[in-house]
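Quick review question:
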């Protein structure tokens, strides 16, 4: 066998996001895909791999047809919010194996507009069959499951509601200079705590926004990098893990599947958590950020509350910049948001985040390493990808 083929992210883009009342999910897929291809500067004819989930009966078939693609490699893995980190890992593996030259990952959703127009309700239901049948009769909603996990962490480790609120406050601070963020007005801990209760202990601002929007990421084999318009961001390592299907199967509410996917990703990349210059973490709720920071190894188990205090997650806050675009809590959250994590990580590593939002190292140079970690279901699955430049 010859030398291992390296894989790079060569194009990233978002569609119009936030409040988009006049577009279909297919249109948002297409808009993001066109922009990602333009960002890369590669011809569409080179794209022979495609991955998508969440739209249509046969997601990669229907969306690929809409985009005018005829891929010879496809993936429709659907594991909730971690879908896109898992798909990126699968795409990189396929390129390394020579099964594809360039793989496009695309997503689009009109989750907000659909509720507004009455095409769907605001309640997400996973049905009443399979493992869910043992929980649905007791009224467990998706948010209630996350709230229960957060409360367990508070009981076990003394984590406070003010510490969880700090995650929302700092996400909004990172969103403030981001023109693509849906909510940019600063908030305080007191304002987070004073909001309407959604699921104890979560008030409204502990929960992600509901938006419309799409994203696309293009990965390619290293031999095509020289033809690209942008500098490559290399996929250094990845990991994925599925931990449980029902809450009754979850051994410890204070440990997420990122504890496994993160360890695998860092080991395969040959780097340590403390070497990361920034982290993009799935944040449908504030507790997700806190516990994932612990499980990725940025602090010890039970130390997440102390870790997020005093502005350490803010760009320029002197700690670890987390969710530098504002995350799902403030920027946008149209559903399975994991692809947005990869877009933001790449933009940061390429130095394209813009004034007042660009992460820099202590010596003033651009970041070199980033981690994106997505979570799916109710902490059921996790995908983690380590990215680097240079």
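Suggested answer, residue by residue:
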């Amino acid at each position: 066998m010859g030398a291992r083929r390296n894989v790079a992210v060569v194009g990233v883009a978002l569609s119009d996001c936030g409040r988009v009342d006049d577009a279909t999910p297919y249109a948002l897929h297409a808009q993001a895909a066109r922009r990602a291809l333009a960002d890369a500067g590669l011809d569409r004819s080179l794209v022979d791999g495609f991955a998508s989930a969440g739209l249509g009966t046969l997601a990669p078939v229907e969306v690929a047809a809409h985009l005018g693609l005829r891929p010879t490699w496809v993936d429709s893995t659907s594991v909730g919010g971690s879908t896109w980190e898992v798909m990126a890992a699968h795409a990189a593996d396929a390129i390394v194996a020579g099964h594809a030259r360039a793989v496009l990952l695309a997503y689009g959703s009109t989750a907000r507009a659909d509720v507004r127009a009455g095409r769907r309700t605001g309640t997400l239901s996973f049905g009443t069959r399979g493992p869910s049948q043992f929980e649905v009769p007791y009224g467990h909603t998706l948010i209630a499951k996350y709230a229960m996990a957060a409360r367990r962490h508070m009981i076990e480790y003394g984590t406070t509601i003010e510490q969880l609120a700090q995650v929302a406050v700092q996400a909004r601070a990172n969103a403030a200079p981001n023109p693509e963020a849906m909510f940019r007005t600063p908030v305080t801990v007191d304002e987070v705590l004073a909001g309407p209760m959604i699921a104890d202990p979560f008030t409204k601002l502990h929960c992600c926004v509901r938006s419309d929007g799409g994203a696309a990421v293009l990965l390619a084999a290293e031999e095509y990098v020289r033809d690209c318009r942008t500098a490559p961001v290399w996929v250094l390592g990845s990991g994925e893990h599925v931990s449980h299907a029902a809450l009754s199967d979850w051994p410890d509410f204070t440990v997420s599947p990122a504890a496994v996917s993160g360890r695998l990703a860092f080991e395969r990349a040959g780097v340590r958590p403390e070497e990361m210059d920034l982290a993009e973490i799935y944040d449908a709720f504030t507790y997700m950020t806190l516990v994932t920071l612990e499980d990725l190894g940025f602090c010890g188990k039970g130390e997440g509350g102390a870790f997020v205090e005093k502005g350490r997650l803010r760009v320029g806050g002197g700690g670890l910049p987390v969710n530098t675009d504002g995350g799902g809590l403030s920027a946008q959250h149209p559903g399975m948001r994991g692809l947005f994590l990869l877009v933001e990580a790449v933009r940061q590593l390429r130095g394209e985040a813009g004034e007042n939002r660009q992460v820099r190292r202590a010596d003033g140079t651009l970041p070199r390493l980033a981690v994106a970690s997505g979570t799916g279901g109710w902490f059921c699955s996790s995908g983690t990808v380590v990215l680097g430049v240079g």
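Why it works: Residues 55 and 191 are 36 Å apart (CA to CA). The chain is about 30% helix and 15% strand.
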